[in-house]
């Protein structure tokens, strides 16, 4: 019976445990979680979502306060086009977080940064350029371009000294998206070093429409592998979404995948950034508590626990402080829903809004996005005398993926 550890992910000259912990914004996939993956010989991700806010919490900087101070005169104004990020501050926040993480890296594995391109930040091209370049400057091993993938992103860093040495990957959910991207990267003679293929059971935003139920990961992975073979391309393929046991992972490696990317099982580890009481919500969740909805202002479906504080909240927009989802002309679907409600008789009278303020609620860990398999987390640990669930270490979960067979899940040692 094969175990995940019988395989290795080959990236350039490196041979790695074929397990990638996916990026989870905002600071859910922490430095500490990524460091554990690297120490154990796999790949960990930090996330570049809302890094100025993350840096303030971690390094006592004042990026958010300074941005709010500069733009507070726009608070009552629905037009946020003037609410721009200071690009030097954005670069500094990215360098701080990435530098802090990379200085602490030990062991044979790698640390990548997950960069969601749908964080358009009121100036999509320039803010993305700064985020990517600052991460490379600060020594990140690789960048995974995700959600909202833009075909021109490689161009933004093509003249960076690390463009060909850093590992660059993309997340796609279809052959169509992959094909378009590869056509553009061929022009730069720089294909991605790996391709994460994310299916409909993943956490966070989904790369599918409301018909996500009609898709399944195995079929898409088979299509991607076939497409790459037909193009004569040997790029490692990394499936993600719903891979819950080491045996699930082995099934993909047997198909020809190079590694797997997982996240949900790590949301209940000590190293994960979610507050402990939220980790207990993830453990307690039943299948009926998990929904895919269209509440995200990005327009993409998003999976979350439906009783989380973000759902139904009518908070004032905080674009002067945050503003990560403002498009290039200062618009965001939450802003429109909020001001629309005010015009239609006041925010208190509105039963609910069509969208949620993702910036505010992700910042406070109040939007409990999760993978489809979250309802199975309770089976991965022990129940404590007070009824709560024992948190796991990242090492325990990592090694369980690495060495388990027959879909078995190892329980942690009982707490002393
Ligand atoms: C809590 C949570 C937050 C996530 N946030 C992001 C994100 O910010 N960017 C992203 O590309 N993927 C995000 N994902 C997706 C994961 O990186 C990963 O690809 C996917 O969840 C793997 O499936 P699994 O959770 O079933 O193991 C998130 C997943 C979870 C569970």
Q: Would you kindly provide a written description of the structure presented here, covering whatever features stand out?
A:
The protein is of the alpha/beta class and 416 residues long. The protein has a domain at 4-270 and 389-403: Aldolase class I (TIM Barrel). It has twelve helices and 13 strands. It has helices spanning 31-39, 51-59, 63-71, 87-103, 124-137, 175-187, 217-231, 246-255, 276-284, 333-343, 358-363, 394-403, and strands at 9-11, 14-16, 19-21, 43-47, 110-116, 142-146, 167-172, 194-198, 204-205, 237-240, 260-262, 290-293, 302-305. A six-stranded parallel β-sheet has the order 4-5-6-7-8-10. Strands 9-13-12 form a three-stranded antiparallel β-sheet, with no helix packed on it. A hairpin with a 2-residue loop joins strand 1 and strand 2 (14-16). Helix 2 (51-59) packs across helix 4 and helix 4 (87-103) packs parallel to helix 5. The protein is globular and about 65 Å long. The structure holds flavin mononucleotide. Flavin mononucleotide binds next to strand 5 and strand 11.
Alpha-carbon distance between the two ends = 33 Å
Task: Please state how the strands of the largest beta sheet are arranged side by side.
Answer: 4-5-6-7-8-10
Which H/E pattern describes the elements?
A: EEEHEHHHEHEEHEEHEHEHEEHHH
The secondary-structure class comes to alpha/beta
